[in-house]
Amino acid sequence: MKGGCERFVIHSQQGMSISLSTARMLAVLTTIGAISVLVGWQVDQATLKSLLPALVAMNPMTAICFMLAGIALRLSIPGPSHPASDASRYIRRIASIAIVLIGSLKLFDLVFGTSLGIDQMLFAQRLDASPTGVPNRMAPNTALCFVLIGSALLTIDTEWPRGIRPAQLLALLVGGIAQLALIGYFFSTSHFTAVSSYIPMALNTSILFLFLSLGVLLSRPGSGVSMLLYSSTAGGALARRLLVAALIVPILLGWLWLVGQRAGWFTPEFGVSLMVVVSVALFAFFIWRTGLSLHRAELQRREVEEALQRASEEVFDLYNNAPCGYHSLDEQEYFVQVNDTELHWLGYTREELIGTRRFPDVITAESLAVFQKNFPVLLERGSIENLEFDMVRKDGTTFPVLLNASAVRDTEGRFVRSRSTLFDMTERTKAEVALKKLAAIVESTDDAVIGKTLEGIITSWNRGAQQIYGYTAGEVIGKSISILVPDQRNDEVPAILSRIARGERISHYDTVRRRKDGTLINVALTISPISNAAGTVVGASAIARDVTELKAAEERITNLNIRLQEHARELETVNRELEAFSYSVSHDLRAPLRSIQGFANILEDEHGPKLGPEGLRLLEIIKRSSTQMGQLIDDLLSFSRVSRTKLSLRETPMTDLVRSTFEELMVHNGGRRVEFVANDLPPAYCDPAMVKQILANLLSNALKFTQKRDDGGKIEVGGTPSGEVNEYYVRDNGVGFDMKYVEKLFGVFQRLHKAKDFEGTGVGLAIVQRIVTRHGGTVRAVSGPDAGATFYFTLPARDTS
Amino acid sequence: MNAIVDILLVEDNPNDVELTVRALKKHHLANKLHIVEDGEDALEFLFAAGKYNGRNINDHPKLVLLDLKLPKVDGLEVLRRIKSDERTKTIPVVVLTSSKEEQDIVESYRLGVNSYIVKPVNFEKFVEAVSEVGFYWLLLNEPTRPPSS
Does B59 touch chain A (CB under 8 A)? Predict the structure, then answer.
């Protein structure tokens, strides 16, 4: 508690030093006074001995004692530059003991009636020749005072509990006795100076005792009784003011009362009453004034305290709720302070950190190495800056921080704690990573990416730029973009820059640029304005692609296209010739066939009997073969017509088309019994006449291959939409075919059945495939021997052109 | 050469000519038949020009059987000339050809043909077709009266 109290006792440094120098001066004055009395005895000079010739002189032994006391007091106050030596401490102790001894011997005489005569040892013959007629002796109160003051000097640095110093109590007692004697002289009465019939204390003796008493009190200003006088507290102020009044007012009033009574101005009773009233009034006034000033001081103090409290709260709030983390570590790396922000980051409570966790407990293993390297640096140099740590939250997740710290040291320069500031770098780290990725992309592209100012000064230059133009970044940054521009295209740069300055973007601008080695290259430029945060265009980014190769490739493609067109024209010509050929086939092959048939018939009609049965059989073979050849020619012509005829596409109701086609087929298959199932079909976008041919071919196939079934067979038609195309199918339960020949199914003149089983030319499915293909669809068949066959084909669901 | 002609047959293929004539004869339709073997002859006959100079142009045949594929002037041209001339446009013309080509059929009708018959390869059908055509145009159809000169 002592330390706690001391904090509020603010000693005035100036007051302390005045006090010490006053004490020193009093010690010296005491010694000088004592020596001058001794000199007075030696030369028998009354003024030196007793100040006033009519008064009692100071006993020489008393003077010796004062001399010793003055020296001892002086030695007890070492100056700031002269600490007390062992010798001075020794001298002081001897002198003090001597004083106590002398005083005790005199008291011993007085108490026990002995005459050891310690006060008669010096100037013995002159002691009795006193002007007052009384032999000069040491007064009893003087002897008591020496015992007291000697003891005080011996115990000057002793301190009892609660700050009480015996030396100061003794000195106060001496001061009281000396004052009593002095007041006696002041009031011209001997009652106060002498003890009963004994010789009174000399005036100079009482003065020197006051000096000593005061000197002892002042010599230890910061402790004991005198502490209060020097403290800046309200109590100190009260003590200083009232003490002065308490010392002076009664003496002054007493003197006035005495003077008034002697002059006969009032009776003793009235005088006492008057004195009481006046002293009450005066003290009341002093107390009121002191109270007032204390009251003001208190109010002021409270104001200051409140302001201090507010400031403290503000600082506390700033500390806790700052947008950055604050903490302090002791020398053992334990947390001693941490703010709310950092606690919030970490997810710990204050109790979980302060004094129980060390900073290394809340960082990752990688960061620990950084910490272990830098904490000693902080202890030694007093600060560390911009360290990056990854901190670990209570839930185990981590986040990056930037840390700055400085050391707090005590007055001796010892490390007390660290003072650390932390910034959460999560967002900045993310941004940095994103920026690095972007930079890597720019650096890795084969295109040249160049930054420039609105004046055309190059500010950045990537690897692609180096590859395309041949310059390194170091060679061009800071130079004008015009070093890349061939002389005949110099006008381009200002034109481009002025468009950029207007905020325009220039896309795929094909031009020519010059490489470092002077060769010209074709480039495609895309130039975009770069704006600052305020939206003002401050520069441009140019992306250039070397299109020299591309240009060459384009030329090759153009040449190829021209040749392709030539080929197409040739093909067209050939196609026309083929058409003419098929046209003439239709005429020229049919005419002789008709002749063969015709004349074979005429032969049979007009000359039949002459031919005989064998001749007629052969004639029949000729007729049948020519009929078959006619059919082949007809089918072949319709197949070629399917390829040549222009498609006339429209939305076609497939269900109706299937029904009408089937009905027409049944006209030519009179009496044929078959189960026909026509499901609802999605409409198709197609050429109805052509698709009708598909259906006719597939349905007639189905009829053909089911004709041998006893039940007449079953034919089913269906279809499902499937996005942009519809898939249709025609299914029968006829003889089917072997899937291993499915590849041959759609070829021209390919037949999987013997002619004597099923007639046909093998062109029908080729036509189906050709028509479906011309519509952009596909056709396939699924079957097995005697398992029936299903033909699937797709057609566009709607107009997509 | 001023005899009245019922049918003018324009056909270059002698086999087809013989088959056609036999088919007509079978049904006694070939009594007043005149045969020309190319388009030029056909036009000269119809317009009474060249070796038919002096023939009365108004003596229209009751029917022209016209093949399309002909030497010198083809059948479509002959048809075009017949149907574009006021004097001859009323003469019934039946195209009798091997061609099933769409373009030939369309073009013939566009030019004003009265019938378009594809010659069947099968002889019985051929005879049937020719005789039906003959019956229709010679016996059933009522022609316009030629203007008297």
Answer: no
